[in-house]
Amino acid sequence: MKKLVILVLLLLNFGMAMTFADERIIVDRIANKEAEQLELQIPDETNPGPGKVTIEIINPDGSIEGTAYADFCKDLDGKINWNQPCTEFDEIYSLNKLNLILNREQLPGYEPAQEPDKNSRNMLAGLAALALIGSNTKKEDEEKEKEELELVDGGELKRIEAEPKWGDLSKTWDHPFTREIDAKFLLISEKTGSRSPLFSRKVADGAYLRAMLGSLATLLYPISFILAAMATYSVQFQAIPPKWYFFAALLVISTIDSFAGLVSAIVIFLATILSGHVTNRSEIMTLLGIVILIVAPAMIASSIRPIRRAIGKDYKWERLSDYALITLLSGWIIKGMIGSLNTLAHTQFAISFYANQIGLIVALAVMVRLALEDLAVHAYPVRLSITTPKKIEQSKFDKGVSKLLRIYIFLVIASEFIGINIKLLIGSVIFFLPTFLNLFGFKFKKTNEIYYWISPRGTFKIIAMIFIGGIFTALAKDALQSPKLFLAWSFVLLTIPGFVIQIISLAGKEPETDWKESQFGAWIYRAGGVLIFLTLTQVVRGVDIFAWVSSRI
Predict the structure, then answer these.
(1) Phi, psi of 494 (to 5 degrees)
(2) pTM: predicted TM-score of the whole model, two decimal places
(3) Which of 177, 313, 393, 465 could bond 128 through an S-S bridge, CB–CB 3.0 to 4.6 Å?
(4) Torsion of CA 514, 516, 520, 526, to 10 degrees
């Protein structure tokens, strides 16, 4: 009687090279017959792709009698097909293999359902970030007023008014054409503010640099132009993300001055279009993703917390919180956006392997930006008030157009994750229902303070959405064996936490007195802030906080 030890070695695509998985699934059993038909169970959490089962026949004395192999393929519907090659999708290429491919047409395709857990986390992170950036809850003391923009919500740059300081009296900004350039940027920003807040905000973004350096600050624009030309030339003007170091440099420049980022985005966009390299949907989506990424960093940063803060009550604590949270979340969001480029284009790009490095570089650039903003506020307050345009209110029509454009872009991007189907419609309606209610003038009756207290606000909203979303994701994973269905229904389920939180916040009545004004409340607020920061740090590191908490209950 032989003893069969079945060692299931799954040769899987885990986003790297085709390698043997670390885990072995061991089935230790006694064979009743010399020839016995075995039914092998492949774990449900196995990602779609090719695999190999190794069966070792072991004698009673422990020696190996023989070895047999069985190849299988798990398809996108979760079905295991034995001794059949995977022809439904391409394998996940390694970084080295992708770096050898110079022609866009030779790049392997990508199906989001090949990595359902990874892309489900990306969707959750994206929805949580959108909920934070697009929040229209009441203004808190630690946050400034936010104005609606077309792609993302960017915070208003505050006009700082004070007595002249040493920077105002210095010669660092007093260069030829400084006053003419100041006047031109102010005019463009204020003229376009009512129609295109996004463009207006980008024109005004470098106000702090012009306050300190005068006309010399505009040298960043030709540098951005040249760097963008070099970046797109490095990929022969194809609709491919440029080399990662070029891309990181462009994101750094965009973080320092968003208008410089817009210049580089326009260069890449026009060069790719005019060279005839945009001929299909995949190339269009690639170019869209690249352009959005380049123009996004400063806008994302300023939407999380004030990128510029006037000196006031609890300034040191609030500014420390700004540095910690803006830096952490900006890098995390950019990292997730880069990681989603494969999904957006349904093509595998080498740059996805550099998402961590680029996210870290952007986070450091955001920290430098905050330090420069503080230098401008403290040393150049008069100059800063001159270079910062006044806020221009949008008309209701323009606000409606901006919201509809934001919804359209959301639908386009989400469809690349799960396809155009009923799940996309249901999830989008749930996520944007509060926006529609607000757009058509529906007002919630704010009668109960309890809703105010139980609704997460600010960065705590991200933690709440990720934790609740983790519960929904776990339920979907248990109920659905098909990776494709799991990813599609995950999108629907992950929109529910943001919807519920938003509705509760809209119905909440804000207390007449701020609980943080008391000494005890201030200490609770600060302790909670530290706890939120530590939790977000784990989220950024990739820790599944729902799984971590549930494993300890």
Answers:
(1) -75, -15
(2) 0.81
(3) 465
(4) 170
